[in-house]
Amino acid sequence: MPDSNGMVILVDASDRPLGIENKLVAHLGRGKLHRAFSIFILDSSNRLLLQKRASCKYHCPGFWSNSCCSHPQPAEDLVTGAQKRLQHELGFSTVLTEIGTVEYRLTLDNGMVEWELNHLLVGHYEGVVNPCLEEVTECQWTELAKLEKELEGYKEQFTPWLPIILPYLVKFVD
Question: What residues are labeled active site?
């Protein structure tokens, strides 16, 4: 399941499918709005599992980010796709609950564009994390308040979408 391969589902602002596109092509030029998901994994103390993206990622390599994120494949249920990706990247599965969606358009570090209608999912987990080193170089649990402060002072160490999606999690947990 290499990250740079695959297709994305092109959507309108209401999440109605408009077609499919190669994942890399959808991130070039002005970008194309496509469906995505971001997963937040919390432990029993509501600490968030962060991942450091592998250096071979096609964008934002070496940046810290939410637990897992990707794109559902055509004809794939969103939550099923998210659970498969979570298993691939971090080596475990858990029940995921959708807590909202957010649209953003970001110019990334290498000139690519991330224009996503992002479905935000939350799960709880206490076990062993076994990251796929082709995707994730490191994981850590962090308190949400600490992460919010780090995003204020050290934003360049984090994926640009994390400050956009984190408030949805904070609101959900409160």
Answer: 69, 116
